[in-house]
Amino acid sequence: MNYEAVIGLEVHVQIKTHSKVFTRVAAGYGHPPNTLTDPVVLALPGTLPVMNKAALDAIIKAGLLLGCDIAPVCKWDRKQYFYPDSPKNYQISQYDQPMCLNGSVEIELPGAARNIMGEHKKIPLTRIHLEEDVGKLNHHATDSLVDYNRAGTPLMEIVSEPAMHTAEEAFAYLTSIRNTMIYGGISDCDMEKGQLRCDANISIRPVGETKLGTKVELKNLNSISFVRDGIAHEIKRQLAVVAAGGKLIQETRDYDGQTGTSQSLRSKEMAHDYRYFPDPDLMPVHVDEPWKQKLRAECPELPFDKQRRLLADYQIPYTITSVLIPDRELSDYFEATAKLAGPGRAQAAGNWIANDLLRELGAAKLPLSASKVSPQNLAALVQLIDAGTLLNAAAKEVFIEMFATGDTPAVIVARRGLAAAPTDAGELEQWCRDSIAANAKALAEFKAGKESAINAFKGPVMKAAKGKANPKLVDETLRRLLAATN
Amino acid sequence: MSVPLHFQTIAELAPQLASGRLSSIELTQAVIARTKAVEARVRAFNSYDETDAIDQAAASDARRAAGQSRGPLDGIPLGLKDVIAVDGQPLTASSKMLANFVSPYDATVTQKLKDAGAVLWGRLNCDEFAMGSSTENSAFGPTHNPWDLARTPGGSSGGSAAALSAGAAIATLGSDTGGSIRQPAALCSLVGLKPTYGLISRYGLIAYASSLDQIGPFARSTEDAAILLGAIAGHDSRDSTSFQTEIPDYRAELKTRRGPWKLGIPREYFGEGLDPEVGAAVEKAIAFYRAQGCEIREVSLPHTRYCLDTYYIIATAEASSNLARFDGIRYGHRSKDGKDVLDVYQKSRAEGFGDEVKRRIILGTYVLSSGYYDAYYLRAQKVRTLIRQDFLNAYREVDALITPTSPIPAFKLGEKSADPLTMYLCDIYTIGVNLAGLPALSLPCGFTKSGLPIGLQLIGQPFREADLLATAHAYEQAHDWHRRTPNL
Hints:
The complex is a heterodimer. Chain A has helices at 53-65, 167-183, 224-243, 289-298, 303-314, 318-324, 328-341, 346-364, 375-386, 392-405, 409-416, 425-438, 440-447, 455-464, 471-484; strands spanning 3-14, 69-70, 73-74, 77-80, 90-93, 100-101, 104-108, 120-132, 136-139, 144-147, 154-160, 196-206, 216-219, 251-256, 261-267, 277-278, 285-286. By secondary structure, chain A is of the alpha+beta class. Chain A folds into 3 domains: 3-292, no CATH class; 301-411, no CATH class; 425-484, Orthogonal Bundle (Arc Repressor Mutant, subunit A). The longest helix of chain A has 20 residues, at 224-243. Chain B is α/β, with parallel strands linked by helices. Chain B has a single domain (5-264, 396-483), classed as Amidase signature (AS) enzymes (Alpha-Beta Complex), CATH 3.90.1300. Chain B is 38% helix and 12% strand. In chain B, strands 1-3-2-4-6-5-10-11-9-7-8 form an 11-stranded mixed β-sheet, with helices on both faces. The radius of gyration of chain B is 21 Å and the shape is globular. Chains A and B meet through loops of A and helix 10 and helix 11 of B.
């Protein structure tokens, strides 16, 4: 029998706000333990939560970006369970009225080759709700310590329908959510910092069956590649159990990305009764049309929409867009440069960014925002090359210096004497005449219609010019002289 | 013979402080001396800090000398129920769970009283986590009623009532979830006000039942209650359930708002279980208002019989959740015998909480459990809406309602502690007000033949405390019950 896998993802995204979701203390990562706390975070007796409006704005924006229906009222519930990472022993969350319903995430599957766009699909969403993050436990030999810095950080849970069938789809789904959240300024989605976390619900069923099989929840998929590997591993495990005549049980499994194995954490029988009820400390908040309109106006173009537009408007290759698109700033930088460089020069601009700029930034371990190469300067460089003023080899040198100093290419070219054209047009013409005269064979071939024979004349000219001749001018001069030669 | 300092009102003391005839240090020392004289018998305090109180009094005198007095509360010693946070002072909720807890922050009402210059004096005993009607649920022992030391001062804010009644403070704050200010006020012959839900910030009040809890004053007169209410009322950005509303000058309004009012007598509040002496005193008060030209009308609050059940579902559900934070992990009592996390939770809570608290946590956990939520919690919320609607319907006909505060006067300590259900009936006339979120106050309206105080309850309309206080003030002007003090 043939089986197919069915995958649904629960993705947690930390919202990037200055303060925590129910109190004024700062939210952040990497601070000394328990320094981002206050009486509310620590759930001291008598403290009360007050909602951070920026967090609500962010989830509404996320919902708008993903085409969700936005709830007219933001309502809060308490999810109750005892665990030391949860200071109140309940988590403020949204139970029966999530902020966002429906919507979908557009994904792109791998293409036939690296330079070919893959198939696009829409993965439907069930809901997105807002909640507070919990603290972190650090286990030691004889005791455990709790760090509440993370507790109270605004957290969105994005729940997909069980609509994916391969690890690749799950990978693409997570990538797309990450790109979208980064574009929206909602989160930096750094998985290493726990800003993006993923649990997967995985089951298998005979192909053609519509009922879902026994579900296994896979936890701790804490890097994008672990998501792909963990899901692939779990599908294989389930197929093996069934193939061996075994029966799958509903359980939660923990995936270890280092060893590529998983182990059971708990079975369904140990499921919690969370005793949800509306939080009496927080009043429902009405989200009206003007509020949504204002946020809609702040929503950026979605990554895939931008990619389609760059391909159409700038005629650049797919491979360049797939480098640019995941980074909103980088793709904006490209657009600014391409516009300044002018028609027909977008691909060159894209190549400089995708190859040289990213290489230099990577080597210097700098973000784009720290780059000294402005779009104006990069556009000017592309124009100099296009005008034949600068040869490619020289341009590479100029770029390195632009990156180091922030100077304009014109200044660097002048300073370093890298300009291509010799000042004396008469001298160039003489070198061309000499070259033609010295190569009767090539002349005959050119006259016989072999276009490429012209290249044979260029080498000696360049040599005479010590490599500084403008190749465009050399080409033009040779053609003019050849036309006049019998 | 003049009234000793410790039995005077804020309204009487403030001008003496203002004129310099009296210093805050003298007044505070008088209150401290009185406290020491009576505390062994009354047991109203969980803790007090003499040095701190004298320092505050000295600061108040210095302000006044510099011409920077902050008004009528500046220099007045006030006691707070031990569920209201004061920075640097113990905050125990009368529970073993918090026996060694010191608050590192101020409640909003505490901050407001400090801003008004009050001298914060003492942490007052109450039923553990404000659950009870007699202070017998305090882990530190019961408080005794100054009018009869064998009897309860009521609860849960029994310490706040007893301390004030005994002269161990000039006014106090309590909290009222089902009658916890009004019932002890009635049993100790004091004015006790439970404000409209949302008028006073709950930030820094240890939560019992979040949708019902409200802080309010105990005072020797409606005027003092008005002064205190004005000092603590108002929206707070730290409490989303606090209301944005104009705060009137309650004290000034006492004199400008005059009847005659239309007063409603809810027939459901005068039935079985009402002590005849209490009933007679309330009837006399009604007769007084009628004689003043007030229109008295019988009204009906038909859902009254569901109040107790509704209350014990909603309050315990919220309590079971609010008290989850007391787990021995970050603060509070931690069992020494915990073997793992679950064991630490179970043992710490088993050792830290008293019986009544455990009873309510278990009940609340049950009503929120999967499969029971709709039948209990959800239904109780619907009934709660009907109860509120009853009151709002009555207010189409009348301005306020008159009822007894407590069906019975102060009962003997130990008399009801064996049977929680009898104890719950003490709140029969007060809990509807909390469910409906309304303001209500209790004021002294007489004594039984054996000398026990009787309280009259006036229930008002949302955010119309000024009218409520003025209605009470009219009665108080013509009677002297509130001037009497216990023989201690």
